[in-house]
Amino acid sequence: MLTQAPRGTRDVLPADSYRWQYLESRMRTAAAQAGFREVRTPVFEHTELFLRGVGDTTDIVQKEMYTFKDKGDRSITLKPEGTAGAVRALLEHNLYADALPCKMYYLNAPIFRYEAPQSGRLREHHQFGMECFGAADATADAELILLAYRLLSGLGVSNLSVNINSIGCPKCRPAYHARLKEFLAGKVESLCADCKNRFERNPLRVLDCKVPSCQEQVKDAPSMLDCLCDECRAHFEKLQACLRTAGIPFAIDSRIVRGLDYYTKTVFELITKTPQGNLTVCGGGRYDNLVEQLGGDPLPAVGFGMGLERVLMLLEGEGIELPKPALLDVFVTYMGEHELKAFALVERLRAAGLKADMDHCGRSLKAQFKYANKTGAAFTATIGDEEAANGTVKLKNMVTREERTVAVNEAPAAVRTMTEE
């Protein structure tokens, strides 16, 4: 157990970390192009934040949170999602007082869910999330959907589809709840234990149940789209118009409700078809009441979350190779008595912006060359007796085998010249 990672967690090893770094770079670029800036919130928050924000009828709160008491007898929870923490930061630091909208994103943020590990989502997984506060217009919803779609399709994820729905607002949702409860009234005994509880407290949650028998019971349930108020209907129609204008294919799926209680109006999912079935790779929506619910003034908001592990899994499944950077530009080899000169040369090369290293294990010169090959270094820079006496270094292109002897202080420039030739 000591040398085994806990179930539902996974190490990112040095040989694989470049894939994460490339994906994170693409995500940062996409966020910056739309005017979003990074926020970093704590890994844990006060439990009350999630009870009030996420909703006590959700599976996350009822079953999946990692909650514990700290030494001050305060209830603390590891983040099960990113939005509530972003709202807390917005309120604590008065970000709503700045020019709106306030656009924030978080990246490689660890999320903790105590659930059976599943495809592309572990008990500790990492999310790219985007949150836009202070924009009520449907163009803000569309902007996020388009950003996620273009990011994923640009990475090479195929068979992508955008599914959207509206789950209304507190003005029109009670009427739908009444219709839904009337529909479910004769089916309650056929529902799972969780849905029997949801029937009374939040019947909309029944539509999100993954138990096959419950899915069968709700397949003919009335649609929220038939109960939308004028405001929600106009918002949903404008969202569709924005997506059509951008040329992004989408479908309306009245069964999307998402797994969090704070959503209002727009909810959406980006889904890809895999040999194992459909897989949700990004999900989000509008949460116009959450800021007020957590103690702030009313402030509209919309956002999404995207799992990094799941994106990387999809790319790997489709055989998409992400660019792998060279580990080293130059590996310095040396005769044993010239170790300090080699050390000084490595520092000179690094100071010039090159990735450089040397042997730290007392290998023979021949073994150093073998190790240099294993590192994939583009060049070796050798200091033997002659080079040490003359203040020079012998550069060798490891691909073309070209060799060139230059003064030590000219080595960085010579490497760049030989690279460009």
Task: Jot down its keywords.
8-stranded mixed sheet, alpha+beta, elongated, single chain, 5-stranded mixed sheet, 2 domains, Rossmann fold, BirA Bifunctional Protein, domain 2, 421 residues
Summarize the structure.
This protein is α+β, with helices and mostly antiparallel strands and 421 residues long. The chain contains 15 helices and 16 strands.
Characterization of the model:
The strands form three sheets. The protein has an eight-stranded mixed sheet with strand order 1-5-6-11-10-9-7-8. It has helices spanning 17-33, 47-53, 59-64, 83-92, 138-155, 173-184, 193-201, 212-217, 230-246, 290-293, 308-317, 339-351, 365-375, 385-390, 411-420, and strands at residues 37-38, 44-46, 67-69, 75-78, 102-112, 124-133, 160-166, 250-252, 264-274, 277-286, 301-307, 330-334, 356-358, 379-383, 392-397, 403-407. The longest helix has 18 residues, at 138-155. It has 15 helices and 16 strands. By secondary structure, it is α+β, with helices and mostly antiparallel strands. Strand 15 (392-397) and strand 16 (403-407) form a beta hairpin. The protein folds into two domains: 17-157 and 253-317, 2-Layer Sandwich (BirA Bifunctional Protein, domain 2); 330-420, 3-Layer(aba) Sandwich (Rossmann fold). Helix 5 (138-155) runs parallel beside helix 9.
